[in-house]
Write a structure and sequence with these properties.
With about 450 residues, this protein is of the alpha/beta class. It has helices at about 20-25, 40-45, 50-55, 65-75, 85-100, 110-125, 140-150, 165-175, 190-195, 200-205, 210-215, 220-245, 250-270, 270-285, 315-320, 340-350, 355-365, 375-380, 400, 410-425, 425-440, and strands spanning about 5-10, 10-15, 30-35, 60-65, 100-105, 130-135, 155-160, 180-185, 290-295, 300-305, 365-370, 395. Helix 2 packs across helix 12 (about 220-245).
Length: about 450
């Protein structure tokens, strides 16, 4: 394939070169499927996985409109040319004629494809039109439709079924279409047939052609532009932010959820925190809070906060009671740990000793959902496989915590954590947060 540059936006590699280079890539590189990408396409692809899949099957994605140009500038890049389909049309017709390629016009309402083909012929008299057909058909007519297109001998097929239908139809049927090049051209036929008038050149040059479209068809274009443009700008900012911070959109969503929940909890639970602090002080002398170094994401150490649930000499006595651990593996757990105070037993029963870790979440050391935060000596003894759990921030809750906690063996805990780090999503986190309340009420494995 001929080499060309591209700009990656919203997960798509968008062609970035001259119109001449675009035609070289499209017509001199074997079978090609060409899609146009504009702000509306980005919005639709974000909520329609089938359309996003279809766009990923295109071999060449061309930049269409002011939206993608602005998105490129935000990240410090610039498209060489705006290769939108409507402006490209006369040049495409000339290129096809010069290469002696037959073009088939397929799509839009009855008579529009024929009018667009006639316009092409008027612009380029040498253009060889292989055939025309409107875009309305039943599923049982599809095979005959494709046979007719193939029988026409078309080298280039223009499909104008609208977004997202046209690109999905092309992706699903590309293997059955003989044409060397297939374009998904959107509303291009409507413009070149004269059904819809184009904006004045000044508006087009300023990137405000969409205002003309909205003025002509306000009801039809309200959702696309008045609602869609602000949504696109939000996605554009998010795309820029994730590049700037090296975060994924999923990580951005997770961090937003963490900040929202931890911030709210710090305020709402302040009275409870005060009561627990008083109870700890009344029972035993010493600090209310217990701090300890733990190993966080990618091996980074951080200081964890907990309510003190043990006597002050707990760490010094740990080695003497390791043999009483009721859990197989590295992590120590004992149901009758003599170092735990009476208040501490209640706190552990309902996981209240971990409330101060909400501050760790707010600071970014931990997440609401993630693997259990490990001790340094535990990590030092990890088998190689277990190190994979350090790829995610440790969490207040997680699969292990809602599945039985101390009743779960070390090996099973590791397998659960590894499964989470591989497949974590914001939706899984929300589900685990919901399951945490059930686990807290049952108290299973909490000691």
């Amino acid at each position: 394939m001929l080499q060309s540059s591209s700009i990656n936006l919203f997960g798509f590699d968008i062609f970035n070169d001259t119109r001449k280079k675009a035609f070289e890539v499209i017509f001199d590189s074997g079978r090609q499927t060409v899609a146009f990408l504009n702000a509306h396409c980005i919005n639709v692809s974000a909520s329609d996985p089938t359309y996003r899949w279809a766009l990923s099957k295109a071999t060449c994605v061309l930049p269409d409109g002011a939206g993608v140009q602005l998105a490129a500038r935000i990240i410090g890049r610039k498209f060489v040319e705006n290769l939108n389909g409507t402006d490209l049309f006369p040049h495409l017709m000339k290129e096809c004629a010069d290469r002696q390629l037959k073009v088939f016009f397929f799509g839009s309402r009855n008579g529009i494809a024929e009018a667009a083909a006639n316009k092409g012929k008027s612009l380029v008299p040498e253009l060889d039109v292989a055939g025309v057909r409107h875009g309305f058909f039943q599923s049982n007519e599809e095979s005959n439709l494709i046979s007719d297109i193939n029988a026409s001998g078309a080298n280039v097929l223009l499909v104008a079924l609208g977004v997202p239908l046209q690109d999905v139809w092309i992706a699903q049927n590309r293997h059955r279409l003989n044409a060397q090049v297939v374009f998904g051209v959107g509303a291009q036929f409507d413009f070149w047939s004269g059904r819809i008038s184009r904006a004045p050149e000044l508006l087009r040059n300023l990137g405000f052609e969409w205002t003309w479209r909205f003025a002509i068809e306000p009801r039809r274009m309200f959702k696309r532009y008045i609602l869609g443009n602000p949504i696109f700008l939000g996605r554009m900012f998010l795309d820029w932010f994730t590049r700037k911070t090296s975060w994924s959109v999923e990580n951005f969503a997770k961090r937003s959820l963490d900040l929202f929940l931890s911030g709210g909890a710090l305020v709402a639970l302040a009275p409870l925190v005060g009561l627990i602090a008083l109870a700890i002080k009344v029972e035993t002398p010493g600090p209310v809070f217990f701090t300890q170094n733990r190993v966080g994401a990618f091996g980074k150490y951080f200081k964890i906060y907990k309510f003190r649930s043990m006597f002050l000499d707990a760490e010094a006595r740990r080695d003497k009671i390791l043999h009483t651990s009721e859990r197989k593996g590295i992590c120590f757990k004992s149901r009758n740990d003599p170092r735990v105070t009476r208040v501490g037993k209640i706190l552990r029963r309902f996981s209240l000793d971990e409330l101060p870790q909400i501050l760790n979440v707010w600071k970014g050391d931990m997440a609401i959902v993630g693997p259990r935060p490990a001790l340094a000596q535990e990590v030092a003894a990890y088998p190689t496989k277990a190190l994979g759990r350090l790829k995610a921030k440790p969490g207040l809750t997680g699969i292990w915590q809602v599945s039985g906690r101390a009743e779960i063996s070390f090996d099973r805990m590791i397998n659960m954590d590894l499964a989470y780090t591989r497949t974590r999503t914001i939706f899984a986190d929300i589900a685990l947060i919901g399951l945490t309340f059930r686990a807290l009420l049952s108290g299973r494995g909490a000691y």
